[in-house]
Hints:
- The complex is a heterodimer.
- By secondary structure, chain A is of the alpha/beta class.
- Chain A has four domains: 2-104, Helix Hairpins (Orthogonal Bundle); 123-245, Rossmann fold (3-Layer(aba) Sandwich), CATH 3.40.50.720; 248-417, Rossmann fold (3-Layer(aba) Sandwich); 452-555, 2-Layer Sandwich (Alpha-Beta Plaits), CATH 3.30.70.1450.
- Chain A has 24 helices and 18 strands.
- Chain B has one domain (3-123).
- In chain B, helix 1 runs antiparallel to helix 2 and helix 3 packs antiparallel against helix 4.
Amino acid sequence: MSDVFFLVLRRLRAPLILLICVYALATLGMTLIPGLDDSDQVYYLTVFQAFYFVSYMGTTIGFGELPYEFTNYQRAWVLVCIYTSVIAWLYAIGSVLRLLQDDTFLAAVSQHVFRRNIRRIDRGFYIICGYGETGSLVAQGLAALELKIVIVDINDERTRSLELESLKIEPIILNADITEPKTLIDAGINNPLCDGVIAVTESDHTNLKIAVAAKLVNPNVTVICRSEIEDEAKNMASFGTDVIVNPYLTFGRRLHLLCDNPQLHRVHTWFINQHSTEHIDERVRLKGLPKGKWIICGFGRFGKAVNHYLQRDEFEVVVVDPDPIKSFAPNNAVVGRGTEAETLIEAGIKDAAVVVAASDDDANNLSVLITARQLNPEIFTVGRVSREADHTLFVRAKCDYIMRGSQVVANEALTVISRPLVTKFLQYSNCLTQEDTNLLVDRICALSPNNDPITWRLQIDQQHAPAIVETLSQGIEITIRQICEHDDFPRNRAIPLLLLRDGMSHILPDQSQRLEPNDELLVCASREHTLLAQRLSHDIELVDTVINNNTHRIPLFRWLRRQRTA
Amino acid sequence: MHFEKVIFAFFIILALSLNFSFFVGDLDNPEHHHIFELACALVASLICTVMKFGDRSYFGSTVLASSLVAVLMLIATSTAWFFMDLFATQTAAMATISSLAGGALVANILSVILLIMETGQLRR
């Protein structure tokens, strides 16, 4: 407020002083020049009369000559006054208009609006640093979850597109340099309602700076960082950054999982990609990628990450890179881009199982995928997309599995933010056996026929599940099976995935286990129907019906039911 | 020499002098107080106030405050002059007008003192 106010006042100094001087002189002149009244007696205007006349002369011109008609001397002075006062007014209005277009003024106004918006936030919010492809995906995801977001980006061209994107919750935008700690404080990191900072700028170093500054300014805030370089990631971790997402390693892990245990990969895909689905061929999704000979074209950060996860006996990796020595490629590397048939044939494309187009150039990657398909129609292809806009081209090229760095980061970050138990479940899911996984996938498929399950967290506490807490406090035992499935509600069944009790996670808990207060239960269910557990948590009558078998029915239905069973 | 400072000092001292010249004389004698002196004092005070608009320094804002007081007092004086007919006698009206102007004079004196103090600080 004060900035804008003072700026306006300071800019208005000169025009106001000019106006005062012109009015004072005009008034003085009017009082000094003698006039003649009706009876041709000399009279002088009083100061008040003169000021009254000058006031309406300056603004309207044409109220008449008061209190008596003017003499020619008076009229000559009025003429001078009219022109000077018009000029003074034009100057004053002109400076106000110029001020409204002034960059300093506009910056002060937008700063003021931003601060006011930050002060008025009434719920938890996240600060997104960097509004690129990742930032925009994260913003959409958070807005869909009805969370408030503050977006900070130095480039106002990028944030301008936000106005067109009509998000569910209006984001607060700040165009400032996020590497300055002051910007983070402006963005409200010290606000007790601030839940977290998400650093997804293009540069790893900037993300590191944000992580450090955020943790130093407010150690309690959750910091989620994108990092593509191992060293920077370690550095971030040493500052207590809560979550570090490396899109290449994450995707490498997923590729590895797709070869080793495609069913578990399916489970991961269901639960992580709740906000935007990744492109994966149906055949690959169900059967996984074959082991054997893999060709990696481009040995950059992504190529290295994939190679890292393939270092086992079942895989034979051939690297194709334009400069294998510079990029520290393995010894059997083939020199070339992989866009030409010769290079790919030299790398052994004819008997290869999978080709990974891993360079950072979308055009080259597309060329690799198409050439590889031509040489070996049976080959599986994995492509990396750097620019979001090129994604459709990769889909057209029938790429089997497409890696979009921004999507990987956004989905990871959103899962961590909105479904912490899912993250825990996915971490522990790696210790599930093949049979367990197959069983789980079959159950989920049976539950959600169109393969679109959702997860839901049941917190057994007074705020989230008053009905269940009350029943438990009466000494009545409730098992997990009882709240997850019931014969009367065949469509509202759920599969318990994880039970969190006293900080201990129990993956796929035993159905006969009893619930205790302060438990947290992660269940998986079909998207179309309300969960039984969800209905139970607030409906004490339903709890009575389902758990204690005390039917609360309308008498007519009770009678009908008795007729049917009889 | 700072041109803006000269102009400001000129106007604030002018305001004080005009105010004093209006105030000086018998309190209730209309012949000792002229309306032009009052009008000029008001204009000079107004200019002083506007010149301190948007000044965020400590002295600047205090001077702004005291000159605002002076302007308000002088406007009150002018209003009293305008409604002179409503008073019982002309001397009573004149006494009110002069004492109001005296109040404005105090505010103007304070402004000048603040100006002198600010100048003194600059020296050091």
